Amino acid sequence: MDTEKSKNLKEVIEWIACIIIAVVLALIVRHYVFTPTVVNMPSMKPTLMPKDRLILDRWSITTGKEIKRGEIITFEAPTVTDPEKVKYNEDNPVAEYSYVPKNIFSKFTYYVLEFNKKSYIKRVIGVEGDTILIENGRVYLNGEILQENYLADDVKTERTGEFYNITVPKGYVFAMGDNRKESLDCRAFGCVPIEKIESKVLTRFWPLNKLGKV
Q: What beta strand segments (E) does 101-196 contain?
């Protein structure tokens, strides 16, 4: 009888160990390699529509691959996003990130499980050293009108904050949504540090008629 109990206990322990290993591996893949997500907001229309389901490439960020203009990225939302509350510094036009988890548990739940963490999905318009000027409904990149074929025909880029005539600092990017009228982005809160970028959009897998690379 004792032998049978020991055998059953061993099987239970083995199952628990397998489950723990599976969960850990899933979290590692999700955090460092790739993860699925769903688009919730209209800020990237018409490129991405609400309820589109995507696969995000996190491996590129993990391995430090270059962030390029035109790529669609996700990043941690800044602490302050309201244009009326953002502190604009002409010499350092960057977004404010002041929230820092206090202990290991809160860091794990925030950065790995992503509880209570808000992220934005936008398109990279400028990288470090680029000059950005928004004027007369157009975007000027390094002194030339930026050709944005991904925008809807009637879209104009308006100023929604103080960050409309800047140079992107080292280690930062300037990103905007394709649906400029309904996008809260770097125009309002400033350039985003590369270290806050979470992923690049790899592909769309739903709806099926739009399956493929974005």
A: 119-127, 131-135, 138-141, 144-145, 165-167, 172-176, 192-193
What digits encode the pLDDT tens for the residues 20-73? 999 999 989 999 999 999 999 999 999 999 999 999 999 999 999 999 999 999
List the structure tokens of 187.
């125009």
Q: How confident is the model at residue 11 (pLDDT cuts 50, 70, 90)?
A: confident
Q: CA dihedral defined by 89, 69, 128, 37, rounded to 10 degrees?
A: 70
Q: Report in angstroms the alpha-carbon separations of 107 from 24, 72, 120.
A: 16, 26, 19
The Cα–Cα gap between 100 and 181 comes to 31
The parent domain of residue 144 ranges over: 65-201
Whichever domain contains 197, its CATH number is: 2.10.109.10
